[in-house]
Write a structure and sequence with these properties.
This protein is α/β, with parallel strands linked by helices. It has helices spanning 21-24, 29-42, 55-65, 85-94, 131-145, and strands spanning 4-9, 46-51, 72-76, 98-102, 124-127. Helix 3 (55-65) packs parallel to helix 4. The chain binds 1,3,4-trihydroxy-5-OXO-cyclohexanecarboxylic acid. 1,3,4-trihydroxy-5-OXO-cyclohexanecarboxylic acid binds next to loops.
Amino acid sequence: MAQRILVLHGPNLNLLGSREPHLYGHTTLPELNARLGGLSSSLGASLDTYQSNHEGELVDRIQAARLDGTDFIVINAGAYTHTSVAIRDALSAVKIPFVEVHLSNVYQREAFRHHSYLSDLALGVVAGLGPQGYEAAVRFAVQHVQPA
Ligand code: DQA
């Protein structure tokens, strides 16, 4: 059975490509998702992506992952990383392994971005590698679910 990976994008990530490109780059969200989809199929895994600007919708999607056979979550919760106990609790409740991704190096930025409600639950954290960080996380996910 192919591994099922869910990539979750939080608020404002729908603006990728035009949003502060010096921080987040020029790749749009559809381009990024297509890249990750291609990578997953080349690795024999299936990939679903979801973006929402709403905390509750992200919680709902994480809860749904418990029932839809998702093996691994890659999440960039955007600003909710630094504020959301609800997203933390949802990830904890479903017990699906996950990696936290940030396009920018949050540790080079404002102090409020240095704290994450997710990191201590995550298997790993990738920050500052741009879209390549998502690719690394997807490769890790495939290996983790079905070690070669
Ligand atoms: C981000 C970093 C967050 O601090 C910010 O709120 C985002 C994007 C990143 O990918 O670098 O929306 O998660």
